[in-house]
Each structure stands twice: as structure tokens, then as C-alpha cells.
TrEMBL record:
Name of this protein: tryptophan--tRNA ligase
GO MF terms, alphabetically ordered: ATP binding; tryptophan-tRNA ligase activity
Species lineage: unclassified sequences, metagenomes, ecological metagenomes
One Pfam entry name: tRNA-synt_1b
Family named by the database record: Belongs to the class-I aminoacyl-tRNA synthetase family.
EC number: 6.1.1.2
Signal peptide residues on this chain, from the entry's feature table: none
Subcellular location field: Mitochondrion
GO biological process: tryptophanyl-tRNA aminoacylation
Length: 332
């Protein structure tokens, strides 16, 4: 495969990324940085669309960077940066808002879900315009592929629509990106409510496996995961969503196929299976958490790495903005 441009982003909205983020997106980020030209962005401006706590936000941006490096994003191989360091995101974001229709923005299910949670009146305008900023994030870098989880599919479709519309009205300006969404792992479910996705905004932390949690906390969460009727460890998303989710997690981390796992646990019951899942998860996450904590000891170094990434990102992004402005008839 020839070198492709990759772009993706993650919000620094919690003290830790969770296993859904990792298996749906971040694991792909690590794989795709080899042999491609990858840009990975901590989307701090997107995080401003929810409640803002300045002390927490700063800490979470740095913890995000530490986790990304600890889980394998190499600042030498890929361009790792913070969105607010590259002003071009805001510049192209505004252009995308002027290209998007109110109706299509209004159809975004993530906006509907999030605004419904807090009550429509408390939702910010920024939450509504969020997908246009996300489109800008992607289009600025002329990305071929955008590795994300299933929940981002609609935002990628919107990005493609906006880029296609812009190109046909104002001339070829943007590459039309494609989502890079896995067949297995694209949606990891909450351990307590295995029909809902694992999410940082979930009501209870008990169903969310966090990279920065202690091994003991994660073992406890897995052992108290909701299971299903029966006692066979078999993959059946309809009848056994809890066990199927745990099978997906085990398989994605251990590399063993789901059918092998089913055979291995035939006749053994849920208790043994959960202990095995706990062991796999905890041993996988242990070195990542330890490395992230180590990296957080030297904030100045982390900030320096992020500034270096922003310089590289800006050089690509500014060329796209110049092209966009020119094609729109703005005087440069
Ligand atoms: P965010 O920060 O909510 O999530 C980061 C990534 O994790 C994936 N993900 C999941 N995958 C599988 N199972 C889950 N339970 C699960 N929960 C989250 C998400 O799909 C995502 O890939 N709008 C984006 C951030 C963004 C972005 C971008 C992404 C802003 N600009 C440009 C790609 C390109 C978001 O809120 O992701």
C-alpha cells in the first residue's frame, strides 16, 4: 500500500481514555502510523462544548498526550498535536459552518443525544456546530483515512458531503476522506449495560474500563460485569450481549479468535471466563498506565513534543486554508 494521509482526533474530556476508545480507534492509530503519514490530534476545542473546568481541562490534555504516547503513538513516526495550537482549525471550521445546511447539522444523532441528556435549552451553540469543526479537522490535512469507532460514522459522512459540495461549487480543494472503521471492536459496550456503548459520559463508572484505572479497580469492574442468562460462553450479540462484549474485548487484546475462546471455555461457566478476561485486560493495560504516569512527571517535555507536532501540522493546514480562501474569492 502506498503512503496514505491519516487523520484522527480524540477529546480530552475525562481523566482517562477507556477501552472503547482504545479498541475502536487508538489501536488502529498505532497500527496506521507505520508506513503512512499520520496526524493525531487532541481535540481540546471540541472539549469546550461540554462543561469547562480550566484546571481539569489542562490536566486532561496533558494526560491525553501521555496516554497516547504510552500506548504507542510515536511522535517521531506521526504528528501528535493539540487542536488549539493550530489556529487553522478555527479558520476552516467557520468556512464549513458556512457550507453546511442547518437541516443536515440538525440530523446529527450525537448532537441530539448529547443535547437531550442535558436538556435542549442548556446545549451550547458550539455543540451544534461541533461536526463542522470536526470536518475542518479532517479536511485540513487532506486525509485519505480517518480511523474511528462506529459512533463517528455519521460525522465522517457529513465531512464527505461538505467536501464534495465545496469542491463542486468552488473547484477541487479537498480530498474526500474515508472512515476506517473496524469490523470487530468498532463498538465496545458498557460492562453494566451491555446494550449501550462504553462511554465517558455514561451514568456510572462501573461499566467503563479505563486505561488509567488501577488494576484492582478494573478487575473489580470485570468481575461484576453484567452477564446473561445461561452459563455457556458463546458469542451471541442478541441473546448474550454481556458475554459477547467480553469475548470481543478478550479477543481484541489477546489476539485469539472468538471461536477459539468459545472452545477454550466450553463447560467452564462465566466465573472462570471473567477471571481470564480480567487477567488479559489488566496485563495489557498495566505497562501503558505505568508509562503514562512516568511521562506525566515531565510536563515540560510533553508540551515540547506537542509544540513540535503543532509546527508540522500547521505547515500542512495553512496550505489548505490558503487554497480554500483563494477558491472562495477571498483576497490573500
Ligand atoms: P471521542 O473523543 O468521543 O472518542 C475517540 C474515539 O474513540 C471511539 N470510541 C469508541 N469506539 C468503540 N467503542 C466505544 N464504546 C467507543 N467510544 C468511543 C470514537 O469513535 C472515536 O474514534 N468527535 C470525535 C472526536 C473528533 C474527531 C475529529 C475524530 C474531533 N475531530 C476528527 C476523527 C477525526 C469524538 O468525540 O471522539
Amino acid at each position: 500500500m502506498s503512503t496514505k494521509r491519516i487523520l484522527s482526533g480524540i477529546q480530552p474530556t475525562s481523566d482517562s481514555f477507556h477501552l472503547g476508545n482504545y479498541l475502536g480507534a487508538l489501536k488502529q492509530w498505532v497500527e496506521l502510523q507505520d508506513g503512512n503519514d499520520a496526524f493525531y490530534c487532541i481535540v481540546d476545542l471540541h472539549a469546550l462544548t461540554g462543561d469547562i473546568d480550566p484546571t481539569l481541562l489542562r490536566k486532561r490534555i496533558l494526560t491525553s498526550a501521555a496516554q497516547l504516547i504510552a500506548l504507542g503513538i510515536s511522535p517521531e513516526k506521526s504528528t501528535l498535536f493539540v487542536q488549539s495550537h493550530v489556529a487553522e482549525h478555527n479558520q476552516l471550521g467557520w468556512i464549513m459552518e458556512c457550507i453546511a445546511g442547518f437541516g443536515e447539522a440538525n440530523r446529527m444523532t450525537q448532537f441530539k443525544d448529547k443535547s437531550a441528556k442535558g436538556g435542549a435549552d442548556s446545549a451550547r451553540v458550539g455543540l451544534f456546530t461541533y461536526p463542522m469543526l470536526q470536518a475542518a479537522d479532517i479536511l485540513l490535512y487532506q486525509a485519505h483515512y480517518v480511523p474511528v469507532g462506529e459512533d463517528q460514522r455519521q460525522h465522517i459522512e457529513l465531512t464527505r458531503d461538505l467536501a464534495t459540495r465545496f469542491n463542486s461549487r468552488f473547484g477541487e480543494t479537498f480530498r474526500i476522506p474515508e472512515g476506517h472503521i473496524l469490523k470487530s471492536g468498532a463498538k465496545i459496550y458498557d460492562l453494566q449495560e451491555p446494550t449501550n456503548k462504553m462511554s465517558k459520559s455514561s451514568g456510572s463508572a462501573a461499566g467503563v474500563l479505563e486505561i488509567m484505572d488501577t488494576p484492582e479497580a478494573n478487575i473489580k469492574k470485570i468481575k461484576s460485569a453484567t452477564t446473561d442468562a445461561g452459563r455457556e460462553v458463546t458469542f451471541d450479540e442478541k441473546e448474550k450481549p454481556g458475554i459477547s462484549n467480553l469475548l470481543t474485548i478478550h479477543s481484541a487484546l489477546s489476539g485469539e479468535s472468538i471461536s477459539n475462546l468459545e472452545n477454550q471455555f466450553a463447560g467452564k461457566g462465566y466465573g472462570d471466563f471473567k477471571s481470564a478476561v480480567a487477567e488479559v485486560v489488566v496485563e495489557y493495560l498495566r505497562p501503558i498506565r505505568e508509562r503514562a504516569l512516568e511521562l506525566l512527571q515531565d510536563e515540560a517535555h510533553l508540551v515540547k513534543v506537542l509544540h513540535g507536532g503543532a509546527d508540522k501540522a500547521r505547515s500542512v493546514a495553512s496550505a489548505t486554508v490558503a487554497d480554500t480562501y483563494k477558491n472562495l474569492g477571498l483576497v490573500l
